[in-house]
Amino acid sequence: MSFGMIVQQLAGGFTKTLLIFVLTLLFSMPLGLLVAFCRMSKFSPLRGITKVFISILRGTPLMLQLLVAFYGPYYIFKVQLTTSYRFVALILGFVINYSAYFAEIYRSGIESIPVGQYEAANILGYSKSQTFIRIIFPQMVKRVIPPVTNEVITLVKDTSLSYALAYAEMFTLAKQIAAAKTNIMPLFVAGVFYFIFNAVVAFVMETIEKKLSYYR
Fold first, then answer.
1. Taking the model in full, what pTM does it have?
2. What is the mean predicted confidence (pLDDT) over 178-188?
3. 3-state SS string over 139-194?
């Protein structure tokens, strides 16, 4: 099997990998901010529940969470599963998992801002929402870019866990081709795809980090 044929067959799987990647970031990053607010809430029950939620998601395998997202509705609510739900469950599992990680990154960034900035904003007449949007949030974004970059790069590789739900993204497709042709070349080609994808992601995130480093 030629290299060109392998690339052509994996291209369709790469499109699915890219879709998982984009949708996960699109929903998990804002959801992570909401979870971070709950984690920092002054209402102790909400703060405690959120802490347990984050601990469970960070302390259990992502593959297990994907399986729960897919089979949970059937075993808990006796809802009949459909083929179309497979992709929904996949995105749901990824989004919930990564929102927990992003929440902790955001929380660390917000809590790293000196208290004096809140006090200064209060003296200037800023409301709490204005203080966060205009003063805290821009600084938080600058500080969390490096750890967020690490998570984004990890997400690129984690998309390969989609095989747990029998969703044929790039790596799953590469394994199927390798098994059918008794040739490991498709796996190496998939590895090259991942490497290039991660290189592009790292370049984009580094560019964003440099753009935000306007005081250096």
1. 0.91
2. 85
3. HHHHHHHHHHHHHHHHHHHHHHHHHHHCCCCHHHHHHHHHHHHCCCHHHHHHHHHH
